[in-house]
Write a structure and sequence with these properties.
The protein is α+β, with helices and mostly antiparallel strands. Helices cover 36% and strands 18% of the residues. It is built from five helices and four strands, in the order αβααβαββα. A hairpin with a 5-residue loop joins strand 3 and strand 4. The chain is elongated and about 50 Å long.
Length: 135
């Protein structure tokens, strides 16, 4: 990673972009956020004099689509809720479920331990802001 970042800096690149994957950060349970890996990355990028842009809207799974070279599922606790209530995900007219992300149809329903998906997303982003406030 050091060599790659150094090469980018030497090539005149100003910064890098990274997705903050929900399935990695909140995988251990609701409101249990683990930003350590991202903090290490931010520190490493800054050490090389580069900027970093973190994309916060990775509230879907990674894997199984065009261009996906990794597999990052939704948080396990969320998948458990989806298994109990499959209507939390999109369903096509043939009845096939798409477990890549939560349906917009339940945005205002308190289906995750009394929190709506919007509240879950907000808490996640607030956690990021709290953790990286000093950067």
């Amino acid at each position: 990673m050091n060599a790659s970042l150094m090469a980018l800096k030497n090539a005149g690149v100003e910064g890098v972009m990274v997705d903050a994957w929900w399935g990695l950060v909140e995988k251990d349970g609701p409101s249990k956020y683990h930003w350590e890996g991202y903090a290490e990355l931010v520190n490493l990028v800054q050490k090389h004099g580069l900027k970093i842009q973190v994309v916060m809207y990775s509230f879907h799974q990674c894997g199984g689509n065009v261009g996906d070279s990794c597999s990052i599922p939704l948080p396990p606790w969320l998948l458990e809720e989806i298994s109990k209530n499959p209507d939390l995900v999109y369903t096509d007219k043939s009845g096939r479920r798409n477990p890549e992300y939560i349906s917009l149809g339940c945005d205002s329903s308190p289906v995750f331990g009394g929190r709506t998906p919007i509240q879950v997303y907000t808490d996640y982003m607030q956690s990021f802001q709290d953790r990286f406030r000093d950067y």
